[in-house]
Amino acid sequence: MTSPMPHGPAEPASTAAARERLKLARRWAHQLSETACVPLTYAELEQRLAKLVDELCDALGHEPPTAHSEVAAHLVDLRCTDPASLRVTIKVLGSGLLSLAGPQRSDRVIGLLSFLAADYAERMRLSALDQQETLRQAILKAMLNAQLGLQASEARFDQLERTSSSGMAITDPQGRFLRTNRALCTILGDTSIQLVRSTLFDLVHPDDERPLRADYEAVLRGEKARTHEWRRLVRQDTETAWVSMTLSLLGRPAGQGHVMMVVEDSTELHLLQGQLNRQLLHDELTWLPNRQFFSTWLEKTLRTADPATGVTLYHLDLDAFSMISCGLGRRAGDLLLKTVAQRLKDIVAKENAMVARFGGDEFAILVENSATTPDVAGMVQQISDRLAEPVDLDGHIVAGSVTIGVVDRPAHHISPADLLDSADLTLRRAKSRGWRQWELFDVARGAGRRAMLGLAVAMPKAWQNGEIKVLYQPLVRLSDNQVSGVEASLDWHHPLLSHLPHDECMRQADRTGLAVPLGHWLLRSACAQVAAWQRKYDQDILVRVSLTPSQAVDPDLAGTIRMIIRETGLRTNCIRVGIPLEALSAEVSQAVDNVKLLVQSAIHVELDDAGMGSACLLRLAELPVQSVKIARSVAKWAPTRPEEDLWAPRALKNLLSILRDAGIAVTIGGVATTAQADWWRAAGADSACGAFFAHAQLPEDIAPLFIEDALS
């Protein structure tokens, strides 16, 4: 905002002069602001200059003028230091002061402006000197601070060099050592004087010299800010030191500076890492490659092997190793494993082959076949004969055998995992035939076995989803054809394989350890269903459940059955538990104790899958078994025509006669025809079940009247 101009109808001379001075100040402020960046608002500048105009006008009345010193000082303080500012000031004040003072004072105006210009020049000179002094002081202070900082930095670097466990050195563009610390000398086993006489490239391992030179040149040229690599340096004692080396550039221009090298001694770490890698990839006992290493090698060999000869994989399992390890002690077992490992390596020493231990008593041999490699039968014979040679295990002489699964020349596109799975399946199939066997992989049989294993794995989910149900098949008294009860069994309604019967369900459950919980579920479901029928029809209905060998040896079997009977409310005399003869055949068996405990609890125990051998009769004589169920394979021996007189039917009649004399009831399963039913009835069997009477059905499909009434 500008100052208001004095005005009035009859303006005095003094007021008119003030107005002219204010106009002069405004004109001066306007033109001066265009020549310099004044740190004031326009109104503040106008007021400041108005005071200066008043001082200049007052100075014209004195001899010599006295106000010019203040004007020059004010102009310099307002940063009007450009030559244009002085020109504008002289021009505006010259014309304005002449107008205010009149022509008679022109000499005074000129003198005043001359003094103003001279004083302005002096003020500018003094201001420049002040600025130079300030700049000089700032430069001196900066130099002092830089020197102190450099001294502190060098002191810190010296301290770092002395105390650091890392080797440090500064080298010139040719790799010569200019400065080293004690740690680097310790790492290399040299003195600082010896290092100064050397270059970095004299100390590096020959195999690492070329890549180190390439990195060194790249750092010097500025292509890389730094490099960090593992290097091998040669110590004074010619031993190799593994180090982590970092190179970075010191100084400019690129290519002419120095290189800072920092070295971390990692020799012990490298050796430890190598040892850990070896332990990770090798068996700790035999130091053979383990499964992980073998799988990697297998993948590589499958890619590089000659397609004409291919590879052969042998998967071995020592027979009766657990007997040796448990009978003679763990040390004897370890000695045997070491001996087997060495013998296997000796067998394939002339072949391009790898021997590995997969764990426990399992080994594998991968042979990359050549024209001189023995055929599969010959190699298997060599392995069997060599491992059958006696071995001394701390004074115990033993001779072992081995079972082998072989995959010969697999398809080139097979994956390592599939190849190992195929070898394992083949080995398991060979072991199922006994000891000292070997089996060659068959694609069709392998696919079938893989499907069965997949079935076993899918069983828990199928059980959870309700695909497995309990079916009931009527048990019929052969004397009057009355239904006395039901036999409970499992049925798996598989989405792809249709219905899987009870025996197959339990066989698959045994593969995954599901037999015991699934068997308990079958027992509980059957007892609950029959108890419900008993309450509904108010009559005793028998339920029979066959146990698996796994269930029969379950230590909690008797307690579990008692608890199920108590919880479901089934009458104790209405349950019949089938114990398989297989579970009772061992000399010491938990199944024998379970039979005794069940009988003590008034639970009817039936010998399941009984045959015609002496083992069956022996168990019947020793155990309090109340009935037997003839095995289906034996039940089929019944003649199909009444006139047949074969030795097997006669033997069956003799067996039933013995059982009747002993007071043991006989149940027949799998009766399919009228002739079979009539023959067994005549032979003295007590009850039967099978397709001839009725198929196994869901509980809602068995009509209550079918249970109450006699069969027609």
From TrEMBL:
<feature type="domain" description="EAL">
    <location>
        <begin position="452"/>
        <end position="710"/>
    </location>
</feature>
<feature type="domain" description="PAS">
    <location>
        <begin position="153"/>
        <end position="223"/>
    </location>
</feature>
<dbReference type="Pfam" id="PF00563">
    <property type="entry name" value="EAL"/>
</dbReference>
<feature type="domain" description="GGDEF">
    <location>
        <begin position="309"/>
        <end position="443"/>
    </location>
</feature>
<dbReference type="InterPro" id="IPR029787">
    <property type="entry name" value="Nucleotide_cyclase"/>
</dbReference>
<dbReference type="InterPro" id="IPR035919">
    <property type="entry name" value="EAL_sf"/>
</dbReference>
<dbReference type="InterPro" id="IPR001633">
    <property type="entry name" value="EAL_dom"/>
</dbReference>
<dbReference type="InterPro" id="IPR013767">
    <property type="entry name" value="PAS_fold"/>
</dbReference>
<dbReference type="Pfam" id="PF00990">
    <property type="entry name" value="GGDEF"/>
</dbReference>
<dbReference type="InterPro" id="IPR035965">
    <property type="entry name" value="PAS-like_dom_sf"/>
</dbReference>
<dbReference type="InterPro" id="IPR000160">
    <property type="entry name" value="GGDEF_dom"/>
</dbReference>
<dbReference type="InterPro" id="IPR000014">
    <property type="entry name" value="PAS"/>
</dbReference>
<dbReference type="InterPro" id="IPR052155">
    <property type="entry name" value="Biofilm_reg_signaling"/>
</dbReference>
<dbReference type="Pfam" id="PF00989">
    <property type="entry name" value="PAS"/>
</dbReference>
<protein>
    <submittedName>
        <fullName>Diguanylate cyclase (GGDEF)-like protein/PAS domain S-box-containing protein</fullName>
    </submittedName>
</protein>
<dbReference type="InterPro" id="IPR043128">
    <property type="entry name" value="Rev_trsase/Diguanyl_cyclase"/>
</dbReference>
